[in-house]
Amino acid sequence: MPCEHDVLEKLTAHESIPPKTPRLNASLGHGPLALLNDEPAFEQPVYITRALVPDERVFMAYMRSVFKSRQFTNNGDFVRELEARLRTHLQVGFCAAFCNGTTATQAALRSLDLSGEVISTPFTFPATIHAIHWCGLTPVFADIDPRSYNLDPTATRQAITDRTAAVVPVHCFGNPCDVVAFDEIAGEHGLKIVYDAAHAFGVRYRDRPIGVWGDLSVLSFHATKVFHTAEGGAVVGADIEKYARLSMLRNFAIINEDEVLGIGVNGKMSEIHAAIGLAIFDNATREYRLRGQLSAHYRQRLREIDGVVVQRPVADATLNHAYFPIEIDERRFGLSRDEVNQALRAENIFARKYFFPLCSENEAYRRHPSSDPARLPNAHRLASRILCLPIYGALGLDGINRIIDSLEAIREAAPRIRRHLRNAGP
Ligand SMILES: *Cc1c(COP(=O)(O)O)cnc(C)c1O
Question: For residue 75, how many other CB atoms are within 10 A of its CB?
Fold first, then answer.
């Protein structure tokens, strides 16, 4: 099961790992290939992302203010300030901060008073589908588009029944969904659209911010995301009228001292989490720019490696480059995705199989008729080929070059690596 949260545990341990003693073993004489006993490309493990850290003095100034006022939570000044800054930065009508993206998704769905089925993608982080299920709704899977990796509008149309209430598409790896098609589907069938925009902070499409499409969009500010508050999330949208309901739902559905209306949750963001967000706000913009340069470099050099396919960016979009997914075409590369992943690990490069396994393979959802692999051929094919490579500003071009050099060396030595892995056994 993919878990971004265990990446973070490793991230925090990152600085304290002692460098590996270099092993000098060039006996195979084919350049640097750690799997075959040469030195690894990196002395310390490199993970797919590295959390931004606030300036300590700035963060402590916020903390002193919290300690003085003793307002740690309950819609304090810092949460409201963060909401205002996000509203401006993301150019949305409103922003309601939450304790995490999963709870924000549940509140977003609950705020729309839905019942029945919700169509979504199997190629996503488990949270998307769990949130639908926790709201008492039935997740129904439809296949993805093999180029954008996003929920396919045609497959979505085919999955609509008289029980369908909403669609939850995911802007996968920050690549915008076909929002125009989903608008049409919503209009024709009277459905609600809630975007999982956990990967799409700051993304724009057709000259409009991503958060204004559909009924609502949900962001995650988990520490593995490009902008974060350690744990956190938000519901955003164009229509400010929706803010009051969400803000009530995240606070136990309390209206005032005398009234509680409906089924709320504790979804509040604390002042401490909001302060992390405020303290790193400006670094996040710089981080996208750096990642953009690294992403362009990856793209340019990976074109030369036969058997590596790069996600095709949607036209007319401004991306945040938060992830760098590639596909391994086993026939052309000479190794399967899992074999490439193992060889990269030996180089201390910890790529991730996002999103494998598919959500439709989860024991809780696999018996639903829509989970039948025969109906989800594109998602199954992609899940067996996908690999997210490390991308974060501090890696620099040097780091990216070393990762690409490793991939090239692995491809050249593919038959030897395959023999080595098969002899080592599973
Ligand atoms: C991170 C993520 C979430 C969940 O967000 P949390 O803030 O960790 O609850 C939901 N969907 C996707 C696609 C994600 O990547």
Answer: 16
